[in-house]
Amino acid sequence: ARVEREVRDVLGEQARKVENVGGSVAQSHVRVGEAAREVVNLAEEIGTGLIAVGSRGRGKAKRMLMGSVSDAVVRHAHCPVMVVRRKPVVFPAKILLPTDGSEEAELAARTAADLAGKTGSELHLVHVLALPPETLYDPFGTDAREEFEKRGRARLEELTEKLEASGGAVEGAHFRVGSPDAEIVAQAEEVGADMVVLGSRGLGVMRRALMGSVSDSVVRHAHCPILVVRE
Predict the structure, then answer these.
(1) 79 neighbors 40 (Cβ within 8 angstroms)
(2) Cβ neighbours of 170 (radius 10 Å)
(3) Tens digit of each residue's pLDDT (9 = 90 or more) over 147-180
(4) What pairing do the DSSP bridges indicate for beta strands 195-199 and 94-98?
(5) Region of residue 122 (left: phi > 0; alpha: psi -120 to 50; beta: else)
(6) Of 67, 91, 70, 89, which Cα lies nearest the Cα of 81?
(7) Element containing residue 122 per DSSP (H, E)
(8) Where are the alpha helices (DSSP H) in the chain?
């Protein structure tokens, strides 16, 4: 009972902080249990449309061994999750949208375009081409890498036109070659992004544990807040 009273005091203080910067708190909740599981369960119970969590930004090795609440919430929440670190998002902002034309990227694109339009923010696209190993050496003398890059740039142009046709305004379109997660993080730093919005394929628990995902890696390494969109 004493601990619960202390927790409610902390919760009340946090609610006052939100209200002091112009927000409003509809309801406060105290849960007992494993943090990530309780956050995810509560989000489903009240039908939330977005979860915003902080990240302690532990070193890579420590995060791999221990995991984190933000990692677990991103993996298991039914709704979009925003992971905030280092600085808050203040709108209008510069938003980076990684896109590959997949269904997950389409969901993220609609979210990013809507967010940019309603807040007067800049929207930048990035398309990363992960070249297959056979392009590194071509025994027939043809420039396979150049052909793959040409197709990748054409794909970026196509995706940009599609987004603009649906009402989104694209400030910049960027093409990169390499590992998708590393290139997304690098592009976010280069354009000075205030937020990255990306889709998640929502792999099963075991498959994600074995393979990881681009969204997991970007959440762990990006310098700015990340909004992970699903369903």
Answers:
(1) no
(2) 17
(3) 888 988 999 999 999 888 888 889 999 999 988 9
(4) parallel
(5) beta
(6) 70
(7) strand 122-129
(8) 2-20, 35-46, 60-66, 69-76, 103-119, 144-165, 180-191, 205-211, 214-221
Helix, coil or strand: residue 204 = coil
pLDDT digits 0-9 by tens, 41-95: 999 999 999 999 988 655 555 444 345 888 889 889 999 999 998 778 899 999 9
The residue assigned the tokens 């938003």 is 95
What is the rounded CA–CA span in Å between residue 14 and residue 30? Answer: 13
Query: Could you tell me if 11 and 30 are in contact, meaning their C-beta atoms sit under 8 angstroms apart?
Result: yes
Residues whose CB falls within 8 Å of the CB of residue 82, separated by 6 or more in sequence, listed in order: 50, 51, 52, 53, 89, 225, 226, 227, 228
Give the Cα separation of 183 and 73 in Å (integer): 24
- Which residue, among 36, 128, 50, 123, has the nearest Cα to 82 in the 3D structure? 50
Two structure tokens written together for 32: 């007992």
CB 185 within 8 A of CB 216: no
Q: Which pTM does this prediction carry?
A: 0.84
Q: Is the peptide bond before 98 cis (omega within 30 degrees of 0)?
A: no
Q: How does pLDDT run across 132-144, given as a tens digit for each residue?
A: 666 555 554 456 7
Inter-axis angle of helices 180-191 and 214-221, to 10 degrees? Answer: 40
> Based on the number of CB atoms within 10 Å of its own CB, is 139 exposed (0-12), middle (13-18) or buried (19 or more)?
exposed
Q: Give the residue ranges of DSSP H helices in 120-204.
A: 144-165, 180-191
